[in-house]
Amino acid sequence: MDPVRSVKGMNDVLPAEIAAWHLVEDRFRATVERYGYREIRCPVVEPTNLFVRSIGEATDIVEKEMYTFVDKGEQSLTLRPEGTASIVRAYVQHAGWSDAPVARWYYLGPMYRRERPQKGRYRQFYQLGVEVFGDPGPLVDAEMIDMAVELVRGLGIERVAVAVNSLGSADTRARYRDALVAMLQPHRAALCPDCQRRLDQNPLRILDCKVPGCREIAAGAPVILDHLGEEDRAHWEGLRRALDTLGTPYEVAPRLVRGLDYYRRTLFEILELGGELGAQNTLLGGGRYDGLVAELGGPPTPSIGFAAGLERIVLSLPAATVPNDAPTVLVASTGPVTQEAALTAARTLRRAGISVDQDLRGGSLKSQLRRADKVGARFALIVGDEELGRGAAVLRDLAKQTQREVALADAAASVRAALEGER
Ligand code: AMP
Question: What angle do CA 153, 309, 68 make, to 5 degrees?
Answer without folding.
Answer: 170
